[in-house]
């Protein structure tokens, strides 16, 4: 889906906390189609890519990206091509995402965990790395007391490691007739990828931090190394919309 940053900035209401930088140090893109103004990526540029290789393993490699002009069905007429389709020029596997300008990540193997379960209120998702470190990610909220037609309650996306907890974002959880319905306005909040990107034995996450059905907000959280807080830091994200 081609997705526009200007609209998205107004639509995204979640707030990332826990001492994360106001501006991300790196850039992030996925192998998708975008509105022309959503990414400055250019054809032939070299980015690091996380690749799912034919043998089933995952590896970080430096690749040249292909940025092909395509018809944007939202704003283009027939024959116009203002959209951008992102893909690797050549690779030995499926590109999961591309990134650049992030310190501490080098080409090489990248431990990748199986796709996690869907986020549901107060249902922790467990991540356990080969290093032995384990984490839980929970959409934490207090369900409404009654079963009115439609209600929203505050919710927090909380990452926990040992005795340390970190709130990655705050949202509204929507309940319909007393049952959980969605986050915000049918947002697709969820984990895109989990594993160890910087080979330090600690958890890294790519999460779609969106609370709106028309907004995509993939956000890369990277372990800072060492111990203590925070567990992860936000290093890259890309805001885009469907229409």
Mean pLDDT: 87
Poorly predicted residue ranges = 1-22
- Note the total helix count: 1
Count of separate structural domains: 1
**Percent of sequence in beta strands:** over 45%
In this structure, how is the largest beta sheet organized?
7 strands, antiparallel
Q: What is the ordering of alpha helices and beta strands? A: HEEEEEEEEEEEEEEEEEEE
* Strand runs, count: 19
- Span between termini: 9 Å
Describe this structure in words.
This protein has 243 residues and is mainly beta. The protein has one domain (5-241). Strand 12 (164-176) and strand 13 form a beta hairpin. Mean pLDDT is 87; it is low at 1-22. It has one helix spanning 5-11; strands at 27-29, 33-34, 46-52, 58-70, 83-88, 94-100, 108-109, 111-112, 125-128, 134-141, 150-161, 164-176, 179-183, 190-196, 204-208, 215-216, 218-222, 233-237, 240-241.
Task: Give a short summary of the structure.
The protein is mainly β and 243 residues long. It contains 1 helix and 19 strands.
Topology:
Elements lengths: L4 H7 L15 E3 L3 E2 L11 E7 L5 E13 L12 E6 L5 E7 L7 E2 L1 E2 L12 E4 L5 E8 L8 E12 L2 E13 L2 E5 L6 E7 L7 E5 L6 E2 L1 E5 L10 E5 L2 E2 L2
Antiparallel strand pairs: 1-6, 2-5, 3-4, 3-6, 4-5, 4-7, 8-14, 9-10, 10-11, 11-12, 12-13, 14-15, 15-17, 16-19, 17-18
Features:
243 residues; mainly beta; 7-stranded antiparallel beta sheet; 5-stranded antiparallel beta sheet; disordered N terminus
